[in-house]
Specification:
The complex is a heterodimer of chains A (237) and B (336). Helix content of chain A is 37%, strand content 24%. Chain A has a 6-stranded mixed β-sheet, sandwiched between helices. Chain A has 10 helices and 10 strands. The radius of gyration of chain A is 17 Å and the shape is globular. Chain A is α/β, with parallel strands linked by helices. By secondary structure, chain B is mainly alpha-helical. Helix content of chain B is 72%, strand content 1%. Chain B is built from 14 helices and 2 strands. Chain B has a two-stranded antiparallel ribbon. The longest helix of chain B is centred in the first third of the chain and has 38 residues. The radius of gyration of chain B is 21 Å and the shape is globular. The chains are: A alpha/beta (237), B mainly alpha (336). The interface between A and B is medium-sized, with 21 and 16 residues. Chain A: This is ABC transporter ATP-binding protein. Chain A: InterPro entries: AAA+_ATPase (IPR003593), ABC_transporter-like_ATP-bd (IPR003439), BCAA_Transport_ATP-bd_LivF (IPR052156), P-loop_NTPase (IPR027417). Chain A: Belongs to the ABC transporter superfamily. Chain A: GO terms for molecular function: ATP binding. Chain A: Pfam families: ABC_tran (PF00005).
Chain lengths: 237, 336
């Protein structure tokens, strides 16, 4: 099999000079795929994703994007390289309108952004209705849509979502997952961290179960859902 | 007729001076609030930044006057204003490069930056007094009044007169222009929006590729321009005296906090709240009341709630009330 589009290869590292949180952890994603990282609290799911985004001190292993080694790049430089990242919290500009949020997402672009904005509005029609409203006044689910929309504005080559459904109701969660699948159908590789392991694995092409900073199980979403060990330990039977 | 006279007296002694003073405070508070929102500290050197900008304008005005350049009926200082703004921008950018950038790179806590800004304040304060001296400088020239008391009385036949000083008129006009430009810049331009984004959510702004050093640069330039405009307008309206700008720091901070720190709209509202409170509380109401009340109820005293010497107490009291009951200010600002 050829090399994956984005891969964090056997990464060991932690925040700053602190202790290692990840231990030889490997995470990758390919175009058209949704890769999901699940696992118990404190397993290093978000940390694993942040390692790919350059927010971690990686002591061994490497991060490659489209074959290029980007291990030493800053997060900002990775955005320029085509990585879109949606943080778990404070992922929107609350005092700015929805449209301004999208504009700021496209800040590094110098070309015409109206087409991309149109695509985002087509994907999230509710945002078009609320375009002149302050993003901080929106509901949790709508905020997440703004956050994802903002990240899409750079026309990223890979999209990383840190718990996009944290704190939203189950109905909104289903809708968000539908949207994420829609984004993925455009061929954009998506990597996401999820608390709602079962639902996330159902839509995942590839799943990583992490435990204490290590890859515990890896497989397609269906395989992991069927795996009795995974079911017993992480999915409540 | 008595009612009209009372109204004119009120306009003349309260509304017009307070509007001019409020505009000056609003411009000052805008600078403070921008620094707080974007650079994330309370800039105690702001009063002396105003003094420095105004000082350049004063010196240039003297020079213009000596070589015979004037601005017709308008004060020559308005001609000097653009150059003064440039000079003040140069000063704050040098200060930023020499002082603030060091602490920014250390990711110093806001309280450290506050202390640093106090140091900057003392240095700027000394610099201004060293260059121009601690004394009063009168530099307003041109027409003194848009409408004078005598003209107004002849025009209306009222017993009370109404005067609008040229400087008051200019203050309001220039303040409106400055505020419109500022809001246009912040809300309509890419750079302005990136400044608001940076103020709103620094991490996400970085993730969006906004360059923090550019944001800081533009912020200082705008703040220096606002400070100079505020300083020159205040100097024209009253007189230029270095120490006064240091004293102005309190009402300016009060205005910014009352309006909600980090919120430009709040800074303007706060400026007028403080100015109107200060003027109404220190105004001797006897004159107005004499027209309004029946003869036997006419007040004996001045009906002045507070001597003008205590005008700073007004800002203090408002500040404390707001901090106690609405710490984020009238408009949604950051809590202090």
């Amino acid at each position: 099999m050829s090399e994956p589009f984005l891969i964090g290869d056997t990464i060991t590292g932690g925040y700053g000079n602190g202790p290692d949180i990840l231990h030889e952890c490997t995470i990758s994603v390919n175009p058209g795929e949704i890769a999901v990282i699940v696992g118990p609290n404190g397993a290093g799911k978000s940390t694993g994703m942040k390692a790919l985004f350059g927010m971690l001190n990686v002591r061994s292993g490497s991060v490659k994007l489209d074959g290029e080694d980007i291990t030493s790049l800053s997060p900002q430089a990775r955005v320029v390289k085509g990585m879109g990242f949606v943080p778990q919290t404070s992922n929107i500009f609350t005092s700015m309108t929805v449209e301004e949020n999208l504009e700021m997402g496209a800040f590094i672009r110098t070309d015409d952004i109206s087409e991309t904005m149109e695509q985002v509005y087509e994907l999230f029609p509710i945002l078009r209705d609320k375009r002149d409203q302050a993003a901080g006044e929106l509901s949790g689910g709508q905020r997440q849509q703004v956050a994802v929309g903002r990240a899409l504005m750079t026309q990223p080559k890979v999209l990383m979502l840190d718990e996009p459904t944290a704190g939203v109701s189950p109905i909104v969660m289903d809708e968000l997952f539908d949207r994420i699948i829609e984004v993925s159908r455009t061929g954009l590789p998506i990597l996401m961290v999820e608390q709602n392991a079962r639902q996330a694995l159902e839509i995942a092409d590839k799943g990583y179960v992490m435990v204490q900073g290590r890859n515990a199980y890896t497989g397609t979403g269906k395989e992991l859902l069927a795996d009795p060990e995974v079911r017993k330990s992480f999915l409540g039977g | 007729m008595d009612f009209l006279n009372a109204l004119v007296a009120l306009l003349n002694f309260v509304v017009i001076p307070a509007t001019a003073y409020g505009s000056q405070l609003a411009l000052g508070a805008l600078g403070v609030t921008l620094i707080y929102g974007i650079l994330r500290f309370s800039n105690f050197a702001h009063g002396d930044t105003m003094a420095f900008g105004a000082m350049i304008a004063v010196l240039l005005t003297f020079w213009f006057q000596s070589i015979g350049i004037s601005f017709g009926p308008l004060p020559t200082a308005l001609l000097a204003l653009p150059f003064a703004i440039l000079g003040c921008i140069a000063l704050v950018l040098i200060t930023d490069r020499l002082v603030y950038r060091f602490y920014r790179e250390q990711k110093a806590k806001p309280v450290i930056l506050v202390i640093v800004s106090m140091g900057v304040m003392f240095i700027m304060n000394g610099l201004v007094r060293f260059i121009i001296g601690p004394d009063d400088q009168k530099f307003a020239d041109g027409e003194r009044f848009i409408i004078s008391v005598r003209e107004f009385k002849q025009l209306t036949g009222l017993r009370e007169g109404l005067a609008i000083k040229t400087t008051q008129g200019i203050t309001v006009v220039v303040a409106v222009i400055a505020v419109v430009l500022l809001f246009w810049f912040l809300n309509r331009t890419r750079t302005g929006k990136s400044m608001r984004a940076y103020s709103d959510n620094e991490d996400l702004a970085l993730l969006s590729g906004i360059n923090p050093e550019r944001v800081v640069l533009y912020t200082w330039m705008i703040v220096a321009a606002l400070a100079t405009v505020a300083g020159v307008l205040y100097g024209l309206d009253k007189t230029f005296k270095p120490f006064v700008f240091f004293q102005l720091l309190l009402p300016i901070f009060a205005a910014a906090i009352v309006g909600g720190l980090g919120n430009p709209l709040g800074a303007i509202a706060g400026g007028f709240v403080i100015a109107f409170s200060e003027v109404t509380i220190t105004y001797a109401w006897k004159k107005v009341l004499r027209y309004l009340l029946p003869e036997n109820l006419e007040p004996d005293g001045l009906v002045q709630l507070l001597s003008t010497d205590y005008k700073f107490a007004v800002s203090f009291v408002i500040l404390i009330i707001v901090l106690l009951f609405r710490p984020t200010g009238l408009f949604k600002g950051k809590s202090v």
